[in-house]
């Protein structure tokens, strides 16, 4: 249930600034956070709230920053939202975050395996022994990859090379033949994936394996997903994969009135928000 249904219309007397944590500028979190802020800022004269977007390393960072109140709102993958709320996985030391609240979901984020078209990578298992990028520490996609490796019973030492490049450096690394494949967790269509496909020839690889079946059976916050065909140059076929949901979260330490206005601004202008 959305918080929107829980509040009466607020009157905010004191101007204030809130921050929304997103991720790198090449992903979908950045424009999504920007759209939320734009919707909220349009009504600033009425409610007094100024919204700013902060680029971060992604889901895990956003959840930690919301817990320690250096961010008011953040975008995160549904798996890491679950871990933070329950105090498990990377959040075991901090314990459960009983103040964490879900505001709404945005879209499906799919596990997207991108290989050079001239590589011999055709399936998920083919990436073993190759040069891959697994994402920045603290990012949601890195967390998903770490869990998948456990279900596959693979070690990082199984690969010829493992890099942790941010999204801004992955295009050049893949297209300059410094990597054979990269893994991203992203909503589609993605300007980032399109940028790669327009820079060099790539192949999207299906993520199908008994280990993924086991992962989905054990963890309800993952779901089966498909990347439509013909979204990107050289990739006409639909790709079977899996993914999580992109969710917008906050904490009870942020004012109910502020959260009311944020959610209201999005859902009162939903068509415009989607277009942004």
**Category from helices, strands and their pairing:** alpha/beta
* Cα separation of the termini: 24 Å
General form: globular
Please count the beta strands (DSSP E, at least 2 residues each).
10
Helix-strand sequence: EHHEHEHEEHEHEHEHEEHH
Q: From the alpha-carbon coordinates, what is the Rg to the nearest angstrom? A: 19 Å
Q: The biggest beta sheet, please? A: 10 strands, mixed
> What would the average pLDDT be, to the nearest integer?
91
Beta-strand content bin = 15-25%
Percent helix among the residues?
Answer: 25-40%
Write structural notes for this entry:
The longest helix has 13 residues, at 29-41. Helix 1 (29-41) crosses helix 9 and helix 6 (167-175) packs parallel to helix 7 (191-199). With 276 residues, the chain is an alpha/beta fold. Strand 5, helix 5 and strand 6 form a beta-alpha-beta unit. Strands 1, 2, 3, 4, 5, 6, 7, 8, 9 and 10 form a ten-stranded mixed beta sheet that branches. The protein is built from ten helices and ten strands.
